[in-house]
Design goal:
The chain has 1011 residues and is α+β, with helices and mostly antiparallel strands. The chain is built from 32 helices and 23 strands.
Length: 1011
């Protein structure tokens, strides 16, 4: 084996990197385990019993609330403390470890996923002088139609509509936009292209400002590892919020307009200090009872949070119910890192990110604060620290801001005469006169610029500002002035962001998904290991070592890339295991052939690997192409599946080719008593499919007839029954509801029909006590009022079907404290549904084209590419037809959604792998016997690869059956369609691809001989 030393070094380095990346997950889980122990300690139990008053029905609910609050408080208190000392060289805090651990998708841990969109059509309408003008309305209507059909950015569609209209009759865009885009240089003489360019910039600016505002907002929700991502290709914003307790509140906050305000900073800092000191004294005097409210969590957190600040994981070893003397005597002041210095800053004090929320809570509960002061935190930490400033805001009798709302007409980053970064802002005319009075009355004082309750800047007023034009200076960097200018303009967002897709998964369903996914993973892993050892003896052990290394590397890469592991991602890992053995199967079969030719074991291994490389690489590259396409066009869990599959293919290649070879080399080099005979078969499998003589080519006419019949059945089912489109493709709302007793879809549908006026779609989802309800009721309306109305209708229509009559609407819509009610939901707007359909079609077409091009190039004949395309088309048709044919016959859901698209693309990638293996052997046979009859060469190739086809198909079917049985309801339709697709793919490779290639090549050459 050449370069064996280099490969060993690479493998060891790769392993060490994976160990390093996975170590963060280990330490994170260790800390979270301690947090759970702390949360469920005797203190929490005693507190729950005390609050419940001996009521057993309330005890569990109260205990769960207290445990959650204590666990969160524990993790907050330790977030900035070192928990991992890497080789005594670098200490990592819990927050840093958490950021580097393997991330779980929302389908595994519960939470909320939303796709938000800044309506470009509203931006354009708001920029127009007269949006009701008939010409303008016709342009908007045409642009909307183009956008619906073609997708992409709305501004591009608007430009296309303008150009179309301009060809018929001259359209002057400047007449519509020159007033509101005057500051962008648009005049009555501006060309249409200049106006479009200015509108495009305004749309992009609105998108960027919205992204900044939403980025700040999600940090306030108190969730771990929130993520926000810009999708620039369609200017949408994807947000994931794990563990959200109140999705309705979150949706309302996300869709709300940015609240920009200008407040007067309290000039008398002594007064502000005294307010803090008085609050501290009062909190110390009343003790832990200070935070007792009607809310259960607040009741329990009274003692919990105070205890926690100096609890476990600090250098002291205090118990749950002991607190430091400093915290008892100064519960508020002890949380500050330091108090302010009037000569340096107008901030009252500074505190760490872990403590500022607790300070805010204590200040909110304090009853002795002056009525003319409130406290607000800075939006950003002090440079290169984790410390935030607390500002005292002066309130007059009205307790209203000096200015608020849409008062800024423009703001931009600039430089002053000394070249220092500054921000210039221009007030609207009405606000400018108010601003002049405010600045005249408050010379020498500071005015805080506040967005959504956080202070972004507090510049000092040097003189009266007339005309509405102001300059904000300070110790800014260029990036900070850009951010501040965007913040100032966010108060005048040209159009609000709207949720176009929303998915909520309850925590109970997330936990069940993890259990189901891990069970299927472990079962499949063990069975594949047993299968390989049974079939290939010692060589099977080498394959098992490669498989174990593959999984280790796969998880290590996932952790290092920060990829999100979803439930389909686990399915991708399980599927990767089935496909990972394919490389080893190909190698083992080729080595076995060399041994049967009479070669010694060393030569057989070397030659077997050499001839197997091309088939392994070609097969995996084609599957990788479909994975990349799916990763690009997919989103959420589907994207997680694609990324996992792509990583798995690459690690499988490395381990299948190199790790297994290193194992064989190690076995060959053993001497004496340690020497071990290397076998590539057992007594049972030695002659399995050794020399099959099936005449595939001779019966190709009959095969075509069978193929045609299957195709007609699939097309007929699609024409008569059609497909059951999920909300991903049809748009609408879907809810999974869990009851405490068995229910029938008919009884649920009957009850809900009375509420909705029309019958929603109701199906059993998994066990007979769960149903999936899909409705298009007011699907085009996305207000919180409509969402609440639908939940109320669901509750009123199903409450009589629960045995437990104490379930309230609040409990029904959240499974935080009860496993009953709505355990998951998804909302997809019509526009988003159209985009998903379009992306799905494009993804499938691109995958087919890429595979056609790759095969045609690699095999130097377009006929091979076309034959592969025919095989894949047949495979996709039969899989889609099966979904139609068996829908409402089988006892599980067969909906066409994004997961189904993932199935089709994966099946395409897997099936072409089968086809490529056969074509590769044909290519090899043609080189060895160039004058041989082509039909015989094709027959020999199909028979020679039959054992490999059987074994790869067997391991893959085995893993898919495990997913189908143990993977849970969420993966049942997925695994069923994969099973259909994989079996059909094997059939298509043998009875569609090969006969088609044979027919095309022999027809072209007009002979059966290939030269």
């Amino acid at each position: 084996m050449k370069n064996k030393g280099a490969i060993k070094v690479i493998a060891i380095l790769f392993a060490l990197i994976c160990v390093y990346q996975l170590s963060f997950t280990y330490f994170t889980k260790r800390v979270e385990g301690k947090a759970k122990e702390f949360a469920q300690s005797q203190v929490a139990q005693n507190e729950a019993r005390k609050i419940s008053g001996g009521n057993d029905l309330r005890y569990q609910e109260i205990f769960d609330s207290i445990s959650n609050a204590r666990e969160n408080a524990y993790l907050d208190s330790i977030s900035d403390q070192p928990v991992y000392n890497f080789l005594f060289m670098r200490k990592f805090t819990y927050k840093e470890c958490k950021a580097r651990e393997i991330k779980l998708g929302l389908d595994l841990k519960g939470g909320m996923n939303v796709m938000m969109e800044v309506s470009a059509v509203d931006v354009i309408k708001n920029l127009a002088i007269n949006p009701e003008d008939p010409t303008f309305v016709s342009l908007i209507n045409r642009a909307t139609l183009i956008h619906r059909n073609d997708g992409g950015k709305y501004i591009d569609c608007f430009e296309k509509a303008v150009n179309e209209a301009n060809n018929k009759q001259k359209v002057d865009l400047s007449s519509f936009f020159r007033v509101k885009l005057q500051d962008k240089g648009i005049t009555a003489t501006s060309s249409n292209s200049q106006v479009i360019s200015a509108i495009r910039k305004e749309c992009t600016d609105s998108y960027e400002r919205t992204f900044q505002v939403l980025s700040k907002r999600i940090d306030k929700f108190g969730v771990a590892q929130p993520t926000i991502q810009k999708l620039d290709q369609n200017e949408r914003i994807a947000i994931e919020l794990p563990g959200i307790k109140d999705p309705q509140r979150v949706a309302k906050l996300l869709e709300g307009s940015a609240q920009l305000q200008f407040w007067l900073v309290e000039n008398d800092l002594n007064k502000a200090y005294k307010a803090i000191q008085d609050a501290d004294s009062w909190l110390a005097s009343v003790g832990s009872k200070a935070t007792v409210t009607e809310d259960i969590v607040a009741e329990s957190m009274t003692e919990t949070t105070t205890d926690l600040v100096a609890s476990t994981e600090t250098k002291t070893s205090k118990t749950d119910d002991t607190v430091s003397a400093a915290q008892k005597s100064h519960p508020l002041l002890s949380l500050f890192a330091s108090m302010g210095n009037p000569q340096i800053s107008l901030a009252v004090g500074v505190a760490s990110s872990a403590n500022k929320d607790e300070i805010s809570r204590l200040l909110k509960d304090c009853k002795v604060l002056p009525k003319d002061i409130m406290f607000l935190w800075s939006a950003k930490p002090i440079n290169k620290t984790n410390l935030y400033e607390l500002y005292a805001i002066h309130l007059d009798k009205s307790r209203a801001a000096l200015l608020d709302g849409d008062v800024i007409s423009d703001a931009k980053d600039d430089f002053d005469q000394q070249g220092r970064p500054v921000v210039t802002m221009v007030m609207k005319s009405e606000a400018a006169s108010k601003w002049a009075k405010i600045t005249a009355n408050h010379k020498g004082e500071c005015i805080a610029i506040v967005l959504d309750g956080e202070v972004y800047s507090a510049p000092r007023v040097n003189s009266e500002i007339t005309g509405g034009r102001s300059e904000i200076s300070g110790q800014f960097t260029v990036d900070e002035t850009k951010d501040l200018a965007n913040i100032l303009k966010s108060g005048k967002l040209t159009a609000p962001a709207k949720i176009v897709q929303e998915s909520v998964v309850g925590p109970s369903l997330g936990e069940e998904s993890i259990k189901a996914g891990m069970m299927s993973f472990l079962f499949a892993f063990v069975l594949v290991l047993i299968y390989m050892i049974f079939f290939y003896s010692t060589a099977g052990i080498a394959a098992c070592v490669a498989l174990i290394c593959n999984l280790f590397f796969l998880f290590g890469v996932l952790a290092s890339l920060g990829a999100v592991l979803t439930l389909p991602g686990i399915a991708g890992i399980v599927l990767t295991m089935g496909m990972a053995v394919d490389a080893n199967v190909i190698i083992n079969e080729r080595v076995k052939e060399e041994i049967l030719k009479g070669k010694n074991i060393g030569s057989a291994i070397a030659d077997g690997y050499k001839v197997a490389y091309s088939a392994i690489i070609d097969g995996n590259v084609t599957t990788l192409l479909t994975g990349i396409v799916l990763a690009y066009f997919g989103s959420g869990p589907v994207q997680g599946f694609a990324i996992t599959l792509c990583i798995g293919i690459l690690t499988s290649l490395f381990c299948g080719i190199f790790i297994s070879r290193l194992v064989f080399e190690a076995l060959l080099n053993r001497k004496g008593e340690k020497k071990l005979d290397i076998a590539f078969y057992t007594k049972i499998t030695k002659h399995f499919l050794e020399n099959p003589k099936i005449n595939f080519v001779g019966t190709h006419s009959k095969q075509m007839i069978v193929t045609a019949i299957l195709g007609i059945i699939a097309i007929g089912s699609l024409a008569i029954k059609g497909l059951d489109y999920g909300v991903d493709f049809a748009g609408g709302r879907t809810y999974v509801i869990r009851f405490d007793q068995d229910v029938t879809p008919e009884s649920v549908r009957s009850n809900l029909t009375k509420e909705f006026g029309s019958a929603p779609e109701v199906k059993t989802y998994g066990p007979s006590y769960q149903v999936k309800v899909t409705t298009d009721y007011k699907v085009k309306e996305d207000s919180e009022v409509v969402k609440k109305e639908i939940i109320s209708k669901l509750y009123n229509g199903t409450k009589d079907l629960f045995k437990d009559k104490t379930i309230t609407e609040k409990k029904f819509q959240s499974t935080e404290t009860s496993p009953l009610g709505i355990i998951s939901s998804e909302i997809v707007g019509p526009t988003m549904a159209e985009d998903i359909q379009r992306s799905a079609i494009i993804a499938v077409i691109i995958s087919l084209v890429l595979i056609f091009i790759y095969i045609a190039i690699r095999f130097n004949k377009w006929q091979y590419g076309l034959a592969g395309l025919a095989s894949l088309s047949f495979d996709a048709l039969i899989t889609i037809g099966a979904f139609s044919l068996f829908n409402k016959i089988l006892p599980f859901t067969l909906e066409v959604d994004q997961q189904f698209v993932a199935v089709i693309l994966t099946v395409i990638g897997y099936s072409i792998n089968d086809t490529v293996i056969v074509f590769d052997r044909v290519r090899e046979n043609v080189k060895l016997f160039p004058k041989e009859n082509y039909g015989k060469l094709m027959n020999d190739a199909m028979n020679q690869t039959l054992s490999r086809t059987f074994n790869t198909l067997g391991t893959t079917i085995l893993t898919l059956l495990i997913i189908f049985i143990f993977g849970g309801e969420g993966l049942r339709g997925f695994s069923f369609s994969m099973l259909i697709g994989i079996v059909t793919g094997c059939f298509a490779s043998l009875f569609v691809a090969c006969p088609t290639a044979y027919y095309l090549i022999t027809k072209k050459n007009k002979t059966t001989t290939v030269k």
